Amino acid sequence: MNWSGLQSLLSGVNKYSTAFGRIWLSMVFVFRVLVFVVAAQRVWGDENKDFVCNTRQIGCTNVCYDHIFPISHIRLWALQLIFITCPSLMVMAHVKYREGKDRKYVESHHGSHLYANPGKKRGGLWWTYLLSLVFKAGFDISFLYILYRIYHGYDLPKLSKCSLDPCPNTVDCFISRPTEKKIFMLFMVVSSTLCIFMCICEMIYLIGKRISKILKIRHDNQRLLFAEQHELNNIALPRSQYRRTDPTLVESQLSLNRREKAKEAGATTTL
Known about the structure:
mainly alpha; three-stranded antiparallel sheet; 7 helices; 70% helix
């Protein structure tokens, strides 16, 4: 399999990824693809040829090998790497769709853009990116579970018992280099677990950033609304200035003033 083509294709996803996404992609290619291509394929290259059972019954060794190794580790890991890298292509395809849509919009609207930055994770692209993380973590978890169920744990025993037909009785079967294969298998399991952890961290980061942004916008809107209401209250005149006066109260006040003036005039005449 040509892994360099897949690497060059997925390298374009780096510019649309967060820091966690870049770390995840580096871990996949350094700790999984590179180890898979350079070392793991050579370690498991002799698994069928050097699988030995202590019997000369024709077909017994093949039946026991198929029972002990229902699927090769190499082929299972190859499928796992393909499945976990495919969701990243969803993000790339969505960005290309946005770029094509923006190009058509520019042609029809004489230079104005539909997207300021087609690769910015907003709207549908944010959901596509989050969904790709869910798929990547889900595929890794599924393959770890399949590996655990098929081999009854993450261990390779040095000796295996087999009593299937056409074996004449229970025979002992031995695999080549079981310790070395066990180390590589545990290394791949740990690498997959770290990749799952990075996907979960990136999902938490994206959701937390989205929630904080929504809360900030809501807080800014509330502050703006409060400022507008406060400014209107300062501009408006007090309610007491708009209070209507009672006409009878004004007339009584005027008559009282006239009486006082009349008393003052009578007092002056007497003197």
